[in-house]
Design brief:
With 506 residues, the chain is α/β, with parallel strands linked by helices. The protein folds into 3 domains: 7-90 and 161-251, Rossmann fold, CATH 3.40.50.300; 265-339 and 425-506, 3-Layer(aba) Sandwich (Rossmann fold), CATH 3.40.50.300; 348-423, no CATH class. The chain is 37% helix and 24% strand. It is built from 18 helices and 22 strands. A hairpin with a 2-residue loop joins strand 11 and strand 12 (219-225). Helix 8 (231-239) packs across helix 9. It is globular and about 70 Å long.
Length: 506
């Protein structure tokens, strides 16, 4: 590895109204290394990336590229200088083909016309490097989000870049796809490309990183060799020594919660619910005061189950009953009327309304349930918003701040507040901790467990099996769009769940 940084910053600072996003940050990125940026939501990771790539301008400090001062006015200028960025949310054109997305803006031409044959061949070659075989002529939106993410990665690595910035690229990938991506990153590293990697997954951090920079509250806490930084120390540096000590000790020493007595009647019972081509017939009971976890790999049917139960998609088989009475959940409005709430997996596309304020986002579901002719007063809206900002520890200037300016973890808390304001009886949480830092995960799950203790029934979906095992009273295991087992959650091990996912029997 070179001893001279390819990219470095000195004293980089940036503020937004009421928020200090970066404060005097020094950073170094060397050729031929994977350098991971770690920190809580709101620590300044995304802001640092945005300043490095011309999305925002620094208010103080300097950026050096190959030793020369630079300041990019736009992301296009950063790309022209050899910096390619892939963000957490897929930012492609779903109506274009896979090949068009990979080569958008740089299509090879022949005799003045776009050379489609070459584009299709080269797109297939790029995807082959990711061990991915796709019909590159198909529209991108015909593929699931995990495949779309891999196409975005293919586009990023296909450019002759000196620096590759990956901001949560694995959030929608399963273990095999992550492994495939890491193989590609190692090849790129060996070729001399400098890679800046952002993730909230600790195992991934240690699997791929050469060095780690920890940020907290907009400042650089420190820079470390990954091989010399124990995971407990990393967590402590990310969230603060006292908080980390309490959390890690609680995880290690606290005895598992005693299983709650099963209620005489489920709040929701699904019998043979299915949708052709989406989900095979499935039976589920969600009890008041219990957390039912759904465990399975990407594509196993977890999100599809949630969408069918909440009426986002229509089931074409089976029946659903609420408190023993058969109901028709044809639309989300029906589900809300029956006391259900749903925090979707894709919070940016299906959850938040980015241009609205925190206050407006929080009262949306409650106002919709009341009907738009029974308007909630502005004073009551502010009261509710301030209540949940305080209760859930949402970090924001005030309730009028646009939700789009919040970190991912704080956006997730606002979505949770939106549904808590409706006082639901059953809450469906689909990947509520996806893309959220360690401390925010603890905060959200502590809140979820507290709600459950008060009688709320919860259907909990997470790709992190350890999280499902830790919080669930019961676990339904899905594989290949069908339920293959149901376990009592307490006292179960991750290995048992993985065995079932892999094809074992219980």
């Amino acid at each position: 590895m070179s001893t001279t940084p390819l990219l470095e910053t000195h004293g980089l600072s940036r503020t937004f109204p009421g928020v200090r996003a970066l404060a005097n940050v020094d950073f170094r990125l060397y050729p031929g290394e994977v350098h991971t940026l770690m920190g809580q939501n709101g620590a300044g990771k995304s802001t640092l990336i945005n300043v490095l790539t011309g999305v925002h301008q620094p208010e103080a400090g300097e950026i050096l590229l190959a030793g020369a001062p630079v300041r990019f006015a736009t992301p296009l200028e950063a790309e022209a200088a050899g910096i390619q960025t892939l963000y957490q949310e897929v930012n492609l054109c779903p109506n274009l083909s896979v090949a068009e997305n990979i080569f958008a803006g740089r299509q090879p031409r022949r005799r003045g016309l776009i050379d489609w044959k070459t584009i299709h061949r080269r797109a297939a070659e790029v995807l082959a490097d990711l061990n991915l075989a796709l019909d590159v002529t198909q529209s991108l939106d015909t593929y699931p989000i995990a495949i779309q993410q891999m196409v975005a990665i293919a586009r990023a690595v296909s450019v002759d870049a000196r620096i590759l910035i990956l901001d949560e690229p694995t959030s929608s990938l399963d273990d095999s796809e992550v492994s495939r991506l890491f193989d590609v990153l190692r090849k790129l590293k060996a070729s001399g490309i400098a890679i800046l990697f952002v993730t909230h997954f600790l195992e991934q951090t240690y699997a791929i990183s050469d060095r780690i920079t920890v940020m907290r509250n907009g400042e650089r806490e420190g820079e470390y060799l990954a091989a010399e930084l124990p995971v407990q120390t990393l967590v402590a540096k990310m969230v603060g020594q006292q908080i980390a000590r309490e959390q890690l000790q609680g995880e290690a020493e606290a005895p598992p919660a005693a299983p709650q007595a099963r209620a005489a009647e489920p709040y929701l019972s699904a019998q043979g619910v299915a949708r052709r081509g989406v989900l095979n017939p499935l039976d589920l009971d969600v009890q008041p005061g219990q957390i039912l976890g759904l465990a399975g790999l990407l594509g196993s049917g977890r999100t599809e189950t949630a969408r069918l139960l909440f009426g986002v998609d229509r089931a074409d088989q089976g029946a659903v009953s609420i408190r023993g009475k058969t109901v028709k959940l044809a639309t989300p409005r029906d589900a809300v009327r029956h006391g259900m709430a749903y925090c979707p997996e894709d919070r940016k596309k299906e959850g938040i309304v980015a241009d609205l304020s925190i206050r407006e986002n929080i009262i949306l579901a409650l106002q919709a349930r009341r009907g738009w002719w029974r308007t909630i007063s502005r004073a009551r809206q502010r009261e509710l918003a301030n209540q949940y900002i305080a209760q859930l520890g949402i970090k924001a200037r005030d309730a009028e701040q646009p939700i789009g300016l919040l970190s991912g973890g704080n956006q997730q808390k606002v979505l949770l507040a939106r549904w808590l304001a409706t006082e639901p009886k059953l809450l469906i949480l689909d990947e509520p901790t996806r893309g959220i830092d360690v401390a925010a995960k603890f905060e959200i799950m502590d809140r979820v467990r507290a709600l459950c203790a008060k009688g709320l029934g919860i259907l909990f979906i997470s790709s992190e099996i350890s999280e499902v095992v830790r919080v669930s009273d019961r676990i339904a295991v899905l594989r290949d769009r069908r339920k293959v087992a149901e376990l009592e959650g307490h006292g179960r091990s991750e290995d048992e769940v993985y065995d079932l996912i892999a094809g074992g029997r219980r």
